[in-house]
Amino acid sequence: MKQNTIVRREQLIGWLLLIPALLVLSLVFVYPIVRAFWLSLFTENLGTQLQPIFSGLTNYSRMLGDGRFWQSMGNTTIFTVVSVLLELVLGMGIALILNQSFRGRGVVRTIAIIPWALPTAIMGLAWAWIFNDQFGVVNDLLQRVGLIQTGISWLGEPTLAMMALIIADVWKTTPFISIILLAGLQSIPQDLYEAHAMDGANPWQSFYQITLPLLMPQILIALLFRFAQAFGIFDLVQVMTGGGPAGATETVSIYIYSMVMRYLDFGYGAALVVVTFLLLVLAVAITARLLQRVRSV
Amino acid sequence: MSFINFLKKLKIYIQKIPRLFRVFIILFIFPLIVKFVVLPAFSGQPITITVLINALEAAQWQPLVEEFQQQHPNIRLQIIEGPNATDQVEDLYTSSFLLGNSPYDLVYMDIIWTPKFAAAGWLLDLSDRLSSEELDQFLQGDVRGGMYQEKLYRIPFRSDAGMLYYRQDLLEQAGYDPPETFAELIRISQDLQQQNLADWGYVWQGRQYEGLAAMFVEILRGSGAFWINPKTLEVGLDLPEAINGVDFLVSTITKGISPPGVTTYGEDETRRLFQSGRAVFLRNWPYVFALASDSPVAGKFNIKPMVHAPGESSGACQGGWGLGIASTSQHPEEAWQVIQFLSSEETQRKYTLITGYVPSRRSLFNDPEIVAKYSHYPQLLEVIENSALRPPIAQYAQASDILQRYLSAALTQRMSSEQAMKAAAEETRRLLSVNSQQSSVSRF
To answer: Domain B162-317+392-443, what fold?
Structure first.
């Protein structure tokens, strides 16, 4: 009985101490989400002189028939999955190299982070020039090698434009993944590998049986971070293609931006935000679940 | 002696106040003194009127601003330089109004922003400021483009309109009159191409951007169709006439009259092709005239209204810039004085002579000084008076995006003309019905 009251008092104090943190969290995260959800139940656009009028789920039913939304959702998904997978593979390779000891390793490690440190808008502009059809480096190189005769309009073709975006994004964010993985690699004790080798395992087996399982937490974190970031990609696309050609690279955040800033349709824009948010949460939950299962096997 | 005592007492008294509190008092009271004592003492200072303009044009405004300053010493006209991209300037205006308390008194607007800004309630109604005689001195298209739901929100400053440029020398050489109809344009082009007089017949803006919608407005008018009726919100994109118009554009590509890359060209790409002498016909805006007069085709070309279907008339897409007053402005009267100055005949004449931009006042097209410098202005007036407006509705930006997407799909032959226009019309109707239902709700 006495034990119980002590526990209860400690729990109470625990909650009291948590209150400031919870308050901050709810102000920063919960309030905007709830506000967006609330707004999405209203019609507030130029047709209503920007006055909110309650309209229930109208915005959501409008979304079902909105081809442009689903196209941008598809674009975002392709962009996210392809670029994050490429980054993971490349980042793993770079991390393994940087984990070896060689002369000048410190310098190389520093250089490897530079792309990540550059402002996205600026590197986006640079990549737009690299892929320019008249003056771009890519076309120039391909022409010198003799692979193509006339310049390819990289950012003018739907598939090529998406490829160009993915290449630029992979270039920029691979260092982020490799740094996280490098930190993980350094926490794996060397004697595990020695013992494994003594048992007759080759390097591939060591990689699959020691490195990958022990690195799983870092891979998981890197994936989740990158997934959420890539899903909300805006600046790179805005600078390189503006969502074109023919909406082939329009991502969800670019579409939402047009809806709110150019069309001034705040109610529908909020509904787009809510659905995108829920889909993102769902996708992250599924990824986390899958990876957890992989880890426990 | 008592004064020194008083100071000493004051010093001791102040030292008793905690230090942090003293700093706070200084920080707090000093601005208050400035605000209520110092600033009112300077109340004879001129009132500042602020306007945001793209940096290129801001530089061209400089002589006008100086002259205004001399005439109105009590008003300070402050120009804020914005980005050169038009849509980024629009974004800056939009966000400043959305956040409230906008720093801009005047709004320098592209013609297609007017309905949106007016519907959002960001502009003052200027209907009572000018008499109908005064308004009649402006080009009618420019005035109509400044109106939303029968009220005037924008006073025209400079005008713009689409037209057909043609190579007079080549046409005379082959014995043709300038074309009037779509079919004539195609026939002449094919003939001149066969005679190897030019690589391409007709170049126009086919990239997916606002320029595509502007170009298409002229095709619609010339085919006898329409885009959206601003009063009834009827959509005419899937009329057979409109589909014929799209077919004409597609045929210029399939018949080899226009280069295949025309679907990625904007104004400047087409201008360069025409200037280099490689094309017979060009659809473009007035700015090309001055540039082409300083190129290999100088003196060899002329302008005329756009071609059209037999029995229809030609239309020139109305563009142009004008000034409105922000509804949040503290000094609407002073802002109006700036508008009066800028839109006056004298200022416009001066601006046209300096920059070559087209004025918005009718009389200036036959003005001796202007005609002496730009001999094509009387013809330009004929073109510009046939102006066709892009639909002046609040949701124009969205409607234009819908049209651009489907028209681009038809031009690149990912959809047939009929499919594309039917889909575009349907989506536009859905957009307008969603919004009109809501506006009828809002009246209750």
So the answer is: D-Maltodextrin-Binding Protein; domain 2 (3.40.190)
Of B120, B412, B430, the CB nearest to A46: B120
What residues of B are in contact with residue A245 (Cβ under 8 Å)?
208, 264, 408
Residues in B whose CB is inside 8 Å of some CB of A read: 87, 90-91, 94-95, 116, 119-121, 208, 264, 394-395, 397-398, 401, 405, 408-409, 412, 427, 430, 434-436, 438-439, 441-442
CA distances from B147 to A188, A189, B119, B336, B393 (A): 71, 75, 11, 17, 10
* pLDDT tens profile B268-299: 889 999 999 999 999 999 999 989 999 999 99
User: Which residues of chain A make contact with B208, given a CB cutoff of 8 A?
Assistant: 244-246
In this structure, are residues B285 and B357 in contact, taking their beta carbons and an 8 Å threshold?
no
Please tell me the class of the B47-160+319-388 domain: alpha beta
Tell me the ipTM for this assembly: 0.73
Distance from CA of B320 to the nearest CA of A (A): 20
Where do the domains of chain B lie?
47-160+319-388, 162-317+392-443
Residue the block writes with tokens 């904007």: B266
Question: What is A67-296's CATH superfamily?
Answer: MetI-like (1.10.3720.10)
> Model-level pTM greater than 0.90?
no
For A93-114, the pLDDT digits (tens) are 999 999 988 888 889 888 888 9
Quick: pLDDT tens for A132-155: 877 789 988 998 888 887 777 788
